Amino acid sequence: MRIKKRLTISNILMLIIPVVIVLIIALIMSVPFSKAYENKFASERERDPNAYLIQGNLRPDMKNFKDKDDFAQLPEDLQKFLKPRGYNLIITYDGEIISSNITDKDKEAISIIGDDILFQSHSLVLEMNTTSLVKNSFKKDNKIVNIIAINSSYKPLKFDMKNEMSMFVISYIVIVFIISFIVVTVTNAILSSKLYKKLVVPLELLSYGAEQIKNGNLDFEMYYGGDDEFKQVCSDFDEMRLRLKDSIEMQLKYEENRKQLVVGISHDLRTPLTAIKGYVEGLRDGVANTPERQRKYLNTIYTKACDMDALVDSLFLFSKLDTGRFPFKFDIISIKNYLLNFYECAKNEFYGKDVEIIFESNCNNSIMVKLDQKEMNRVLLNILDNSMKYKAENKAFIRIRLCEKEDFVVIEISDNGRGVQEEELVKLFTSFYRGDVSRTKPNEGSGLGLAIAKHIVEAHDGEISAYNMQGLTIKITLPKNYNKIGSNN
């Protein structure tokens, strides 16, 4: 999952999850809070000697009362309810007091209110100063029944509904807020922790890679199994590591080749120079004291100078090819016609040198390649010349084969020589390699021929390689060209 998507989902979850949980908690908490508030309100109402509460309990079911004697038994039950609340009871029946437990203070309070209130036929609730009087009046068989409760020491219990509700709401909100804060903190911590792990792992991997590169170690591997933006970053980082490693290895290889080139140049120049110096000293010291000997010394000096000139030319050509500054002149030509012409020239070139050259082809004349004929001649002649130099028998047998494979043409030049050891095959195209460690056979060339051939073939977008098969075979692969004949590139 992409980091952008993961961050979006995480942020959404950080909002949704706490909100849902808070709503659930608020709903759950409302039940016990409401019940606690109701219990408190009921408890307060139970303790509150409110006159209307008293009046509600002074309403007996008149169906259960038939006469005066039945009303005379009512006070016992009522007094159990009234006494804890500070009320005393008076019951009158048809203008007669049939039950009373009021005190003198109660009588004084009634006298203030008016004694006639005891026998009047109407219900009322009266709270005056410290007196609370509750009266229920009934008719039974045309008789007036009054049930009166009086409290002459009345102190009402104040229950501030608005304040209590405010306290309830505030307490509820505070508790829900605290729980919500905890839930949000825990949720964010969990989600942030998961997101942090997703971010810190690749960052630590990149940090590790940078540390390894800083310490010069390029042999580690950067593998990240996630499927997000860091996957591409880690992949690019690892590709950078591989390219840096290849670059350093190539630089080391170039440095090694440069050293070998310097050593090779020094050796191959020293050998003819030493010979020239020796023959010149022989001439100067009079060792060559006959015209024939002097002519021989001079011819040898000339030959060695020509060898040095050829070596310098090869070095100059190799240098231009190696730096990519060699001016090729490409033509699009028929590869079969080109090789037939080269074959005829090669037979004339090597005529009388104990060599047999044959040409085989399964291509037709319409197969075109992009070719610098002069430089490709240099490559092929160098290969033929090597086959002659390293022949194993008195007579060299060389076969030139041309075939096509899909979008390529393949040129193979095989000889019947002694071949090359398998571990040495890859070195054939290295500068100054001759398969001769001592390099004491200058007649076998400078060791630059196949290195030059490799550069020329690669400039043709081709490949050159070698393998052993009853001798040595050099294989050149060139891409076909489908442009018009004779067009230049």
Short description:
The protein has 489 residues and is of the alpha+beta class. 53% of the residues lie in helices and 17% in strands.
Could you please describe the fold and organization of this structure?
It is an enzyme of class 2 (transferase). InterPro entries: HAMP_dom (IPR003660), HATPase_C_sf (IPR036890), HATPase_dom (IPR003594), His_kinase_dom (IPR005467), HisK_dim/P_dom (IPR003661), HisK_dim/P_sf (IPR036097), HssS/ArlS-like (IPR050398), Sig_transdc_His_kin-like_C (IPR004358). Residues 197-249 form the HAMP domain. It is found in: Cell membrane. With 489 residues, the chain is α+β, with helices and mostly antiparallel strands. It has 11 helices and 12 strands. It has helices spanning 3-47, 51-56, 68-72, 75-82, 104-113, 161-214, 229-284, 291-322, 335-349, 373-389, 449-459, and strands at residues 88-93, 96-100, 124-128, 131-140, 143-151, 331-334, 355-361, 368-371, 396-405, 408-415, 463-468, 472-479. The strands form 3 sheets. Strands 2-1-5-4-3 form a 5-stranded antiparallel β-sheet. Strands 7-9-10-12-11 form a 5-stranded mixed β-sheet. A two-stranded antiparallel sheet has the order 6-8. Strand 3 and strand 4 (131-140) form a beta hairpin. Helix 1 packs antiparallel against helix 6 (161-214), helix 7 runs antiparallel to helix 8 (291-322) and helix 10 packs antiparallel against helix 11. The radius of gyration is 60 Å and the shape is rod-shaped.
